[in-house]
Design a protein that fits this description.
α3 crosses α19. The strands form 3 sheets. Strands 1, 2, 3, 4, 5, 6, 7, 8, 13 and 14 form a 10-stranded mixed beta sheet that branches. Strands 10-11-9-12 form a 4-stranded parallel beta sheet, with helices on both faces. A two-stranded antiparallel ribbon has the order 15-16. β15 and β16 form a beta hairpin. The protein is of the alpha/beta class. It is built from 22 helices and 16 strands. Keywords: Cytoplasm, Glycolysis, Kinase, Magnesium, Metal-binding, Transferase.
Length: 553
C-alpha cells in the first residue's frame, strides 16, 4: 500500500505519556480514593450493578508495582462512530502489555462488538501495530454499532473469551458503548468469569464529559479540522464579499463542536442548541436573530458572513420538537403505509394537514418544501423522523431569506443576500490525530492496561489535568457506574451514561456570549489553518479553546 510523506513522518512520532507512566511498569502503584456513587438514581443503578457499583476511584502514582504477575490475553474493540486517535489507544495498550510481559497477547476483534459475538479477530504483532501509529481512522480492525445488551449475547461473548483465554476486554467508544461496557462488566462479575472490562472515552461530539472525564478523544482533532475549513470559508467570504455561508457541523444533540469552532474562528453567527432550548426560541425568532446580523452588516456595505449551525439544533426548538412528535404519531403503524401509497406531494400535504394540530401545521407551513419532504421521507426503521438528516443549514438560510424579503418590502433592508451551504461531519472523524489526541489516546491505552494489570473491572481509563503539558497529566481510573443515570429509552427505563450538554454558565459559553455581538456586526474572522504537527509547542500542542477556558486559573 502506498502511503503519504506525512504518514511516514507520523510513524516516527513518539507520543508523550503522563509523568507517572514514563518510568516503566515496575514503578507504578495505585492510590485509592473514595467510594463512588452514580450521578443520579443511585438506588436503581446500585440494584442493576450489585457487583460493580460503588467502587473506588483510583490514581496511578510513582511507586512499587504491587500487581500480581500473570499472563494477560486482552481483546480490544472499536465501537460506534470513528474518532481521530483510536489507533493510538490500541498502540498504547499493546506497548504497555508487551512491556510488562512479552508473552502477553492482544486480540483485535473486527467490526465492533459483533466481532466478539462472531469470534472474528486478528492477533496483533509489532509489524501490524507499527503500520497504524499516529494515524487517523478505525481501519485497523473496523468499528460497528452492535449493542451488547442481551443475556444471550453476554453468554456468547463469555464463551469466546473462555475459548481464547481472554482475561480482559477493552471497549473504545462513546456513552452508549461504555454503558454496554459497564453492563458486560457486571455480567462477567456476576458469573465469576474472571474477565475484566475497561472502557475508553471516545467521541468527536464532546458530550462524554463530566467532572472526571475532561475531554473525550477525537474532539480536539475534529474541531481543529472543521475550524480550518471554516477559517478557509471565512477568508473566501471576506475575499469575494458576496456570500453568506451557512455551515452545519456534526455533534449530535450537544453543541460542543459548534461552540469550539466558533471560539476558534469567530464567525458572525453561531447557534447554541442549549441556549435555544433555555430561551424557548421559535424558528421565527432564530431567523430574525440571524437576519439582524445580515441586515446590520449590509448597512455597512458587507453583504457576506458566516453562520455555524449545530447538527441537533432543531431538536431544541420547542415548537419543532412538538412537530416531530406529532409527525412520529401521524406515521405510526399502518398509517405510514397509507401515507406512502399517496401518489403526489399535494395528496400527502393534504394528509399531513388533516393529521397535525393547528399550531404544528403553522410551523410546518413555513418550512421550505424540501425540508417538509425530508421530515416525511427520511425515517428510521421505527418510523421516526431522523432529525440529524434534516438540512438545518438550508432551513435557516431559507427562513432568513424570507425575513429579509419582508424587511425589503417594508423598506428596512436594502442589502443583497446570497447563501451557500456546507455540512462538516465525516471530514473530521478520521483525520490524522493532532499531537494532543495522539498523546491523549496513547496514554488512555497505556493506562487501560495498568487498570487491567491491577485487576479493575467496569472502569473507564481516565487521564486528567489535560490543559497542562502531558508530563503533568494524571492517570487513573473511574468506575463507569459513577457516570450513569436512568433514562427512558423506547418505553423502558435504561441505565445510561449521562450526556453532557453545553453549560450556559460555563466559561466557554460565557466567553462566546461576551464577544458574539461584536462578531455579528464586524468582521472578526480568525483563520486557524491546518493542524500543525511540527514546530513551536504553543502551535503544535495547544488544547482546544474549550478545555483551556474550562481550566483557566
Amino acid at each position: 500500500m502506498e502511503i503519504s510523506a506525512l504518514q511516514k513522518a507520523r510513524y516516527e512520532y513518539a507520543p508523550k505519556l503522563p509523568g507517572m507512566l514514563r518510568n516503566g511498569i515496575a514503578d507504578i502503584c495505585v492510590k485509592e480514593g473514595e467510594a463512588t456513587a452514580s450521578v443520579a438514581d443511585q438506588d436503581k443503578i446500585k440494584a442493576l450493578f450489585p457487583n460493580t457499583y460503588g467502587e473506588k476511584e483510583i490514581t496511578f502514582e510513582k511507586g512499587q508495582n504491587t500487581s500480581a504477575p500473570k499472563k494477560q490475553v486482552v481483546g480490544v474493540i472499536l465501537s460506534g462512530g470513528q474518532a481521530p486517535g483510536g489507533h493510538n489507544v490500541i498502540c498504547g495498550l499493546y506497548d504497555a502489555l508487551k512491556a510488562t510481559n512479552k508473552e502477553n497477547v492482544l486480540y483485535g476483534f473486527k467490526g465492533g462488538p459483533s466481532g466478539l459475538i462472531n469470534d472474528d479477530y486478528v492477533e496483533f504483532d509489532d509489524e501490524f501495530i507499527n503500520a497504524y501509529r499516529n494515524t487517523g481512522g478505525f481501519d485497523i480492525i473496523g468499528s460497528g454499532r452492535t449493542k451488547l445488551e442481551t443475556e444471550e449475547q453476554f453468554a456468547i461473548v463469555s464463551e469466546v473469551c473462555k475459548k481464547h483465554g481472554v482475561t480482559a476486554v477493552v471497549i473504545i467508544g462513546g456513552d452508549d458503548s461504555n454503558t454496554n461496557a459497564a453492563v458486560l462488566a457486571e455480567y462477567f462479575a456476576a458469573h465469576n468469569t474472571g474477565v475484566q472490562v475497561i472502557g475508553c472515552p471516545k467521541t468527536i461530539d464532546g458530550d462524554l464529559k463530566n467532572e472526571d472525564i475532561e475531554c473525550s478523544f477525537g474532539f480536539d482533532t475534529a474541531t481543529k479540522t472543521y475550524s480550518e475549513i471554516i477559517g478557509n470559508i471565512e477568508r473566501d467570504a471576506n475575499s469575494a464579499k458576496k456570500y453568506w455561508h451557512f455551515v452545519k457541523v456534526m455533534g449530535r444533540s450537544a453543541s460542543h463542536v459548534a461552540l469550539e469552532c466558533a471560539l476558534q474562528t469567530q464567525p458572525n453567527i453561531c447557534l447554541i442548541s442549549e441556549e435555544v432550548a433555555e430561551k424557548k426560541m421559535s424558528l421565527s425568532q432564530i431567523a430574525d436573530y440571524i437576519a439582524d446580523s445580515v441586515a446590520n452588516r449590509a448597512a455597512k456595505g458587507m453583504n457576506f458572513g458566516v453562520a455555524i449551525i449545530p447538527e441537533g439544533v432543531v431538536e431544541f426548538v420547542p415548537e419543532f420538537s412538538v412537530l416531530i412528535q406529532e409527525i412520529n404519531e401521524l406515521l405510526a403503524g399502518s398509517k405510514a403505509d397509507e401515507f406512502n401509497a399517496l401518489a403526489t406531494w399535494a395528496d400527502k400535504y393534504a394528509f399531513i394537514e388533516k393529521g397535525l394540530t393547528k399550531e404544528s401545521m403553522e410551523v410546518f407551513a413555513i418550512l421550505p418544501q424540501a425540508i417538509q419532504q425530508q421530515l416525511f421521507m427520511e425515517r428510521d426503521p421505527h418510523g421516526n423522523v431522523q432529525v440529524s438528516l434534516i438540512e438545518s443549514e438550508k432551513l435557516f438560510s431559507s427562513l432568513v431569506a424570507a425575513k429579509l424579503a419582508e424587511r425589503k418590502a417594508a423598506g428596512t433592508y436594502n442589502g443583497k443576500f446570497s447563501a451557500l451551504h456546507h455540512f462538516l461531519g465525516y471530514e473530521g472523524r478520521c483525520a490524522f490525530p493532532s499531537n494532543f489526541d495522539s498523546d491523549y489516546c496513547y496514554s488512555l491505552g497505556y493506562n487501560a492496561f495498568m487498570l487491567i494489570q491491577y485487576g479493575y473491572n467496569g472502569y473507564l481509563s481516565k487521564v486528567s489535568n489535560l490543559s497542562k503539558p502531558a508530563n503533568e497529566w494524571v492517570a487513573g481510573g473511574m468506575p463507569i457506574t459513577k457516570m450513569m443515570n436512568i433514562e427512558r429509552r423506547h418505553g423502558e427505563d435504561k441505565p445510561v451514561i449521562k450526556k453532557a450538554l453545553v453549560e450556559l454558565d460555563g466559561a466557554p459559553f460565557k466567553f462566546f456570549e461576551a464577544h458574539r455581538a461584536q462578531w455579528a456586526e464586524e468582521t472578526c474572522f480568525v483563520y486557524p489553518g491546518a493542524i500543525q504537527y511540527y514546530g513551536p509547542t504553543e502551535v503544535c500542542d495547544a488544547t482546544t479553546k474549550t478545555l483551556a477556558l474550562e481550566h483557566a486559573k
